[in-house]
Each structure stands twice: as structure tokens, then as C-alpha cells.
Amino acid sequence: MTTAPEQHTGTSGVADESALELLVHGVGGTTPQEMLDDPRTVRVSGDDTAAVHRRAEDVDAESRPDDYRGRPVPEAYVWCNLTSGNGSRALWLVLLPFMVVNLAHWMRPNALSRTRTVRLYGLLVRLAGLTLTVLLVAAACEVALDLTAWQCAGTPACAERRTWLGFLADGWWSQPGRRLALAALVPTALSVLLWYLSHRTWSAYEAQRPLPHQPDPEGTDGSADNALARPGFWYGRRLVSRLRAAHTAAALLTVAAAVGTSAARYDRRAGGPVLLDVLGRIFVGALIAGLLAILAVVVLRGRTEDRIDLDLDRTLVRVLPYGALTLLALTMVYAGWSRPHWHSSGRLPGDAAFGGIALAQMVLVLALAVVAKAIYRTAVDRRTALRGLGGPATAMLACGLGGVMTGGVAQRVADWLDGTSGLIAGPPVLLSWQASVIPPLLVVLAVLCAVLALRTARRKKAETVRVAADYHLDEHADGTGERPDAARTSDIAGTRARAALTDRAPVIIGVVSAVSLLLGGLAVAGAWGTGRVPGTAAQGTFPLLEGAADTSQALGSWLIGAGFILFVAWGRRAYKDPAARRTIGILWDVGTFWPRAAHPFAPPCYAERAVPDLTWRMDTWTRTTGGRLILSGHSQGSVLAAAAAWQLPPSVRRRVGLLTYGSPLQRLYGRWFPAQFGPPALASLHRQVDCWRNLYRETDPIGGPIGLPGDCGPAVDHPALLDPLAYGRTERHPLPAPILGHGDYQADPVLAEERARLLARLKHAVPTPRGQGQGSSGRSSG
Questions:
Q1: Neighbours of 103 (CB within 10 A)
Q2: Mean pLDDT within 103-112
Q3: Do 253 and 702 form a contact (C-beta atoms < 8 A)?
Q4: I need a labelling partner for 426 at 20 to 30 A (CA). Which of 330, 506, 689, 762 fits?
Q5: Where is this region: Disordered (predicted)?
Q6: Are strands 51-55 and 73-78 parallel, antiparallel or unpaired?
Q7: pLDDT digits over 735-746, tens only?
Q8: What is the pLDDT of residues 43-54, one digit of tens each?
Q9: Which residues, listed in sequence order, are joined to residue 631 by a DSSP beta bridge?
Q10: Domain 12-79+606-763 adopts which CATH fold?
Q11: pTM for this predicted structure
Q12: What gap in Å lies between CA 41 and CA 94, rounded to an integer?
């Protein structure tokens, strides 16, 4: 690797002429050759995971300032390997519910101050995340312990069909407690794997310390109220380690409960040895104590953002999971104690467990909605998604995804073990009721999609008129405009109309979440009220209703299982298909921007590596050269650019110009994450950087305007760019110009023009380098 020399310039004039454009790509990733438009590039800083690249001819640009007068030195920050570098990360699809509930934490409405209500919001999301961990491990216990070891291995006819279970049906392992203890190794291995992955990904991705915030001798930092500017925002190591210990312990105690409660119940009823009864009661007491300790860890501490928190709570982090593992080991020994008269029949008490988890999740979501609405009322902003209920709706989606995955696994394993023979009781009744509500939910979703399709068609008609005006089409071809082409106009208008569907996402998520909450509540009530699979609760009383319920349950069971199989197949395909791997990488680009604040088993936060990378690069370059810097971000790269600008010392931030294009800063992040990217935060960033210009297209489904007034210089937003660049064939575009949508903003000459304007503005505002004994010049007026 070659490192670009960064020499301190000797005169103020040279310093003022030094300029750097730091390019940050968007979702899906790209190569440094494509970003720099040159096949010969050199890595000047970084590693194989994320690095800064230059063109080979620009490596020593700082030593030849005369060659770069009037133009910036381009650098490309490539971070795509943080999210979509290899096929193994496709396995993160299994962690999707954890990622979604972590997003809910950051969707808190904007508040005037950090109050107890804000802390309560974070606590409720953390508790919802804890229920998802218990749900996932409970599903593994349902498959391994209940369906396999308890039901199938305990039924001779089923065990005969599955020869690999033969050793559990006869001999030393035939006792139920021993079968459960052996089967518990599967969910235990899953729990340990989740713990290992969380620990390893932290070391690989998130262990980068942010740039320390030094006191600014040139002024005061006006961004103290912005969370993204706090020194410890991108360093949540302590919270993640505490949550990892708590969730690992919760997972292991869930396995212990599944193994030990059945044995303890048998010992109380059978009137066996007093020792076993005492051990059972001790086990239950230890289990309750462990659960209380876990809740205390989750409840008593949230994130520390005002400083870089280097404490690790090593004793807690070690004692909690290892204590739970010890209790699990002792429980397995206790369950494996000889009980010759114990025989398995029916199901393990999974209905109570899954019903309790589902009820707890619904209560948490409703409480979260109340808290979120209370926070929203303190600073009402109509642009906020779902009027402040975006976080609760997203948390409900996470719980729904967890339920779908749980039910899908249980239903398919039960079908595989038993088929249609009816030899075993099958999964808990609640999972069948949850499956029965899938078809009604799909019907609601289909109706919603039909309504959106109708509105899109109407918008397309309106856009047809606007396209004619934007391109000055002349229907009479009298020489004052281009002749209209119906097909071309329809393509452009249709692309604009479909791009506007992004603004309807809150409606879709809100409706789906509300219906899921309602149907989920009905499923719990039906399962607990009847105790039977849908369609069999009152046979003969309402034949039509019973038939519809039975059909819905069968169809839902098939859909939930097929959906899970499709989910797994998609992840498996990503091992061999680069295109599929790239698609999954885009999902993580959007979903894993935020630190793990609610769930430690969520995929790692790439921004905890990318933001410090960008901040350190900008800070060291500007302090060394004293030159100008344009931070140029496309799509998700613009979000990283804004986050990095907030982390800069104020004196450096004032030397930076921000150029964003195809940016979701306001359209997506401002609406869904108002506390961090709402209008007050973006207006603060506008005031703190020297200048900011944003480009967007109406055909872009992701990027959009920032929507801020020009109260400290020119307005941020450039008028919407025409896309395509030309309607028909012209001298400049003799072939039909493509509709670019979200990509290739560099093809529009307006981008180069805006870059030049930003550089010209910065030229008169940049202070001389530190160490030359001169003060900073004032900000330009624009």
C-alpha cells in the first residue's frame, strides 16, 4: 500500500488553493475505479474492509499544488465490504427481526429535551428485543425438545419412521428427562453461536474509537443538543457488551426452563424421592433469580453518548452468561436423573410459553405507542412518519417477523416428522392460530396494494402533463418544442409516479402493523379460549365458519412454512450468486446503519467503522494542509457524510462543504428518525458546515429534497434535475438518453457545476493551517 504524503504548505496562498473531494458511495457498493473514473487507483489509507483510494497520478498531489489549482483532488472512500463483502453474511437474514427491533429504538420522535419519557421509550424497546431472543430460542426448543425428543421419540410409531431417533426410543436414553437433556444441546448451541457472532462482529466492525472531541479555540460547538454530534454516539461498546451478556443468559435460561420445568412438574406430582422434589424447587428459584438479574441489567442502563465510555463491566459480562450456562448444565443433570415411571405424552407446555411471549410483546408495543405519542406532542412535526408512531409500528413488525419464523420452523418440522399420519400432537395450538391469521393479513395487504396502484395510475396521468411542460413539448410541431412521443412520455411519467410510492411507505407499514396487532391479539384469545386448533373448537355448531377457519389455518400453515423456506433459500442462494449477495448487502446498508442499542444479536453497525474513518481522514487532512474539503455523498453515502460532519471539531466542520445527491436524509431518515435527522438537526448541520448543496430527481425513489430554507446562505436544494437529460434525440444526445432514477448522478453536468460553486465559496472562507500563527477568516456570505 502506498500512502499519500500530506505535507504542510508553506504559504497561505497555497493553503487556500488546496482542495480535496472525498467521495462516499451509496447502497450496493462500487469499486474505486468506477468512483474515480480511472482504471489505475491506489489505496492510500485503510484495509481490505474499508479504505480511501486515489488515482495513481494523484497520490503525491499535496507535493504538487500548482498542478491542482482550481480543481480538487478526488478521493474515494469504499465501504461496501462492511456490509456485502462475502456470502456468509447472507446468514444474517436469520437475524432480521433483531435488526428491525433495533431500528425501532432509533425511530423515537424528536423531543425538546432528554426526559424520563425518552429513557422509558428506550427501555421498552430493549424489553421488546429481549422477548425476541426468548422467542427465537423457544422456537428452537419447540423443535428439538418438544416435537423431536418429547413427541416423536416418545411415540414408537413415529420413532420407527425416523430411524435416526431409534436410540432415543429404547434403552438408557428412552426416559423423557434424558431425551430432553440431550436435545437441549441444539438450542444451547444456537445460543452460544449467537453470543459468539455478536462478540466477533463487534471486534471486526465496531471496535473503532471515534475522533475525540477537543475544545475548540475558535468558537463554541452549537451542536451539543444533536445526538449525532456527541462524542460517544458511535461507540456503544459498553451497552452492547451488557446486552450481549443479558441476552445470552436469557437464551440459556430459556433452554434450562424448557428442560427443567417438565422434570420438576413430574417430581411434584409423582410423589417421588424428596431429594428430587427439593432440587426441582431449587431449580425454579434459581431460574427466577436469573430472570430478575437479566431484567435488572436490561432495565437499569441505556446508552452513554456524552463521552466515549471505555468501561466494560467485565465482572457482569462474565458472571451472567457463565452463571446461566452453569445452571443449564446442572438442570440437564437433574433432568437426566432416573425416573423409570415417567413417560411422555401430548405436548410440552408450549402454549403457555408462546402465549406469554406474544402477550408481553403486544403489551410492550401498546405501551411504546403511548410513550411515543407523548414524546411527539412535545415537538409536533407533521413530516414525522405515522405522527410519531413509526417506532411502535416497526417494533410490531419485528415481533410479527419473529412469529412468522417461529411458526414456520415449527410447522415444517412437524410436517416432516409426522406428515399427515397424526401420530404426534404437533406444535402448540397458538402457532396454528397465528398461522390462520396470515391469509386475512395478506388480503388486507392486497387491498392496500390495489389502492396504491390506483393512486399511482392517477399520479401518472398528472405527471404526463408535467413532463410535457418540463421538456417543452409541442404537440403541433411548430418548431417551438419537441414533438411528443406517447411511449416516451409514459415511461418518464410512470417512473416519477412509481418513485413517489416511497412516500407512501408509512401508510403501508402502519396498516400492516395495526392489522398484525389486532389479528395477533385475536389469535392469542382464540388459542387460550378454545385450547384447540382453529376449525375444531365447536364442531357442528357453525359448519361454514368452521370450514373457513380450517381452510385459513391450513393455508396459513402452508404459507408460513413456504415463506420461511423461501427466506432460507434466498440466504443460501447468496453464497453462489453475487447478484443476490449484492441485494442482501443493500438491505444491510439501510438496516444496519444504526448502532446496536436494543438488541446485541442484530447484524453489526457498519457506521461505527465508517463514520470514524471519514472523520479521522477529514480532520487529519484539513489540519495538515489547511485546505478546502468537499464531502461528496451519494445515497446512503450522504447519510454517512452528514454523520461524519457532525463528529468533526467545529473549526474543521467550518472548512467543509457538503455535496449530496440522491440523498435520503430528509425523505427517509428525516421522517423515520426525526430525533437524529429531523428538520432541527438538518438545519443545525446547515449552519455548522460552510456550505451545502443537494441534488435530486423526481424519478429517484430514494433521494429527495432536504427542504430547508436558505437562512444561512443559499438554499440547500437545487431544483429537481431533469431525468432523462434529453427527451428525444439531440446533437448532444444523438441516442435516447436513459432514465437514470437513483443512479449515475455524475452524468448530469449540474453536479460538476455545483461542485465548482462549493469550492469557490470555500476558497474565501478557509483559514490558514494551524501552526502558521494566523487566525481563521470569517465565514463567507454565499
A1: 26
A2: 92
A3: no
A4: 330
A5: 763-782
A6: antiparallel
A7: 989 999 998 999
A8: 999 888 899 999
A9: 22, 658
A10: Rossmann fold (3.40.50)
A11: 0.89
A12: 37
